[in-house]
Amino acid sequence: MSVRISCGRFVNNVTQHVSVTYIGSRNISGKTMRVKAPAPKPAPWPYKTNRYTMLHRFFDRTSARLDENSKLIVVEGPVAAGKSKFAQELADELEMLYFPEANLDMIFTNEYGYDLKQLDPQLPETCRSFDLLQYTVKYSQYIDALAHILSTGQGVVLDRCVYSDFVFAEAMCSKGYISREVRSLYYELRKNSIGELLRPHLVIYLDVPVNKCLENIQKRNISYEKNSPDISYSAELLVYDWSHEGEVEVIVEDIERINFNRYDEQDPKFVDWRYSREEMFAYLRNKYSDGKNFLMTYLNVPRFNIPELLIEAEDAKLALEIYDNAPGNEYAPGYNSSMGDTSILFKSKLPLRETLPVIERRAR
């Protein structure tokens, strides 16, 4: 006599139900005002190097790592408003991971620290680095942030994010830096990809008058700054007048007062983070950690009617040769003896995912 059991039912019984508003529940707490130490939880999962497979889902529950501080917070505001400094201090107080503003240095700096933008003078003009990649790097960074939260349980503070990037595309188009065709491609990329992400829990907007922003921009001396949808529907929004820098502790107190559990299943706020079954958390964790390379393919939108974005085959061949001969680019990361890599003979695996390095923008 044989007995057959549905695998789906077995998984459901093992993983069990979790609270519908698990991630969105309770209040964020800062380390200064915290009454007691956080409850112990499993060690962070090394998502950058280890796969999270179907088998792991039975023994490594995602919800076991999530607590009241497992949130995604975004700091927004005008250029030179002081977002980076504030975001770093906020992340430190909330014991979250700080992600600097996504920038092209993150994708043009290889694993050995070599800045590939140095090669621009050697490249054909059609192959030089360009700012349409700004959306790509913000999209990539946001995936890394989601993977970090779901794999480690640690919250993330982002300096700007992919959801506000369109304002730069609009500004550049209105001033003639990009054509209407490039603008249309930008929105096609955005439409094709942004629905794959989970929107943030909280957005903090630092409001600064235009004249103050211009003054700060001149002080920062970053050349491209000098010359160049309502998020509150799905996330909490805090707005502050940042003409004169305030105290982070005061804002942390405001954050601690937010009850992330006051919304029901039908409310649009935090809808991206409300799931009733453990396997949905496992699915999302796998999607953003192991599945990042696939998610990046959503940006592969062919458009052949934009001449300034087309590259001749000869130019592309020359560019690839120049990039491949750059220090650290000859072989895959970990296999370049010229850069000090060792034990190459005993290595057999390529990197699991392309995780962006944490690099602040360089002044140019």
From TrEMBL:
Any one biological process term the GO annotation gives: mitochondrial electron transport, NADH to ubiquinone
GO annotation, cellular component aspect: mitochondrial matrix
UniProt-listed Pfam families: dNK
GO molecular function, a single term: kinase activity
Record's subcellular location: Mitochondrion matrix
Main subcellular localisation: mitochondrion
Keyword terms, alphabetized: Electron transport, FAD, Flavoprotein, Kinase, Mitochondrion, Respiratory chain, Transferase, Transit peptide, Transport
Cofactor: FAD
Entry keyword annotation includes Metal-binding: no
InterPro entries: Deoxyribonucleoside_kinase (IPR050566), DNK_dom (IPR031314), NDUFA10 (IPR015828), P-loop_NTPase (IPR027417)
Alphabetized PANTHER family for the sequence: DEOXYNUCLEOSIDE KINASE, NADH DEHYDROGENASE [UBIQUINONE] 1 ALPHA SUBCOMPLEX SUBUNIT 10, MITOCHONDRIAL
Stated family: Belongs to the complex I NDUFA10 subunit family.
Protein task: Accessory subunit of the mitochondrial membrane respiratory chain NADH dehydrogenase (Complex I), that is believed not to be involved in catalysis. Complex I functions in the transfer of electrons from NADH to the respiratory chain. The immediate electron acceptor for the enzyme is believed to be ubiquinone.
UniProt-recorded name of the protein: NADH dehydrogenase [ubiquinone] 1 alpha subcomplex subunit 10, mitochondrial
Protein source organism: Popillia japonica (Japanese beetle)
